[in-house]
């Protein structure tokens, strides 16, 4: 019997809708931010944009990965039929609730938006109970923090008209996940080595990894509450600087130069490089560089690191990622590079506001092109799998 594809498994629709929504939110936000359109929403352009990326796109991708991997981890079939349809429906309802927020009470908008992450948390909790797998517990913790961050986001919107701590908490939770689970990079590189023949082994975990994790988590905690003056600006800056340098050292220790030449390794390394870059930009902001560097750090982490790694996870899950990592084609490499270039353009726009009218549309166009192209490729592949013309690889 052929193993199920990600399109036939429960995660396929969420991978597709997550990619489509990532493209759609940029297509709406860029002209809205530039004043070319004015949708009737209770949220500002930046607040809606942040909410739909952190609490719309990212949970959909996490859900797609969870539902695709569930059969191999638990031995139980993924959701299908009406349970899958209902799960997808509550995700869509959350998006429609935000779109119609001008006509709804804030409490109603918040409850509609929270339906999907709570349902996904229940699915992740069931998987953890079935497997008792530590990695599943990490996902469960991240989803729990995201639910709390989303609730805080809506409370801040209701009380103050904008969210600071809810947004930062969500970004920090996702970054903490990447910091703690950074073994994804050696794993992909290792897959390339096995596929291409013997080569020197990866550098094992050491004190550098421990220092990078500890300083990274501590610095993210300080970054969330930096407005409260928990530490003075210079101490906060020093901590963020130390976290950035140790993250860079950790990334360098992965030594992709020792692996066979492979685009799949290079594009993921480029995405991971935005993590230390964000810490260094945030450090410079605390050390006197100005608020523009805080905005640049936020976009390095969200568009560069979270967006780039999310796209990598999307691509690997859609194809099926057990065993050796799949070779990246020129097109998929171009998609990843487009996301990295979009992040660089957005960072440059934060640091050079005079070129906003050029750099923001450029960043948006690159982002849209990347995720829309992935969605088209995934939809085409899903159709070919459904017709039986392609035998898919087995997902994790």
TrEMBL record:
The keyword Membrane applies. The keyword Transmembrane helix applies. The chain crosses the membrane at residues 12-33, 53-70, 82-101, 107-125, 137-155, 167-189, 266-286, 298-319, 331-351, 357-377. Keywords: Membrane, Plasmid, Transmembrane, Transmembrane helix. It comes from the Bacteria. This is Membrane protein, NnrS-like. It comes from Azospirillum baldaniorum. The lineage of its organism: Bacteria, Pseudomonadati, Pseudomonadota, Alphaproteobacteria, Rhodospirillales.
């Amino acid at each position: 019997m052929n193993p199920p594809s990600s399109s036939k498994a429960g995660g396929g629709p969420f991978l597709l809708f997550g990619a489509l929504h990532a493209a759609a939110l940029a297509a709406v936000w860029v002209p809205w931010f530039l004043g070319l359109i004015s949708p009737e929403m209770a949220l500002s352009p930046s607040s809606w944009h942040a909410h739909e990326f952190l609490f719309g796109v990212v949970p959909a991708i996490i859900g797609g990965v969870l539902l695709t991997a569930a059969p191999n981890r638990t031995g139980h079939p993924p959701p299908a039929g009406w349970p899958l349809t209902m799960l997808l429906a509550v995700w869509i309802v959350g998006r429609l609730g935000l779109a119609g927020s001008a006509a709804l009470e804030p409490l109603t908008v918040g409850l509609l938006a929270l339906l999907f992450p709570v349902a996904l948390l229940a699915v992740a909790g069931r998987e953890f109970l079935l497997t008792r797998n530590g990695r599943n517990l990490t996902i469960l913790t991240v989803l729990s923090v995201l639910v709390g961050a989303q609730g805080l986001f809506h409370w801040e919107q209701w009380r103050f008209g904008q969210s600071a701590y809810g947004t930062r908490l969500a970004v920090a939770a996702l970054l903490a996940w990447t910091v703690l689970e950074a073994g994804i990079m050696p794993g992909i590189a290792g897959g390339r080595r096995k596929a291409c023949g013997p080569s020197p082994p990866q550098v094992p975990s050491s004190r550098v990894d421990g220092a990078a994790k500890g300083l990274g988590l501590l610095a993210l905690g300080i970054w969330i509450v930096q407005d409260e003056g928990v530490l003075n600006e210079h101490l906060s800056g020093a901590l963020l600087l130390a976290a950035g340098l140790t993250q860079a050292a950790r990334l360098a220790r992965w030594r992709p130069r020792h692996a066979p030449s492979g685009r799949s390794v290079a594009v993921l390394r480029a995405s991971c490089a935005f993590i230390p870059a964000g810490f260094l930009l945030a450090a410079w902001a605390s050390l006197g560089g100005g608020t523009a560097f805080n905005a640049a750090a936020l976009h390095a982490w969200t568009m560069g690191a979270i967006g780039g790694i999310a796209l990598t996870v999307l691509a690997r899950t859609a194809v099926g990622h057990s065993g050796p990592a799949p070779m990246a084609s020129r097109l998929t490499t171009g998609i990843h590079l487009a996301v990295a270039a979009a992040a660089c353009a957005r960072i440059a726009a934060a640091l050079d506001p005079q070129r906003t009218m050029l750099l923001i549309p450029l960043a948006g166009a690159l982002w849209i092109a990347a995720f829309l192209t992935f969605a088209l490729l995934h939809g085409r592949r899903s159709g070919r799998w459904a017709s039986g013309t392609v035998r898919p690889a087995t997902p994790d």
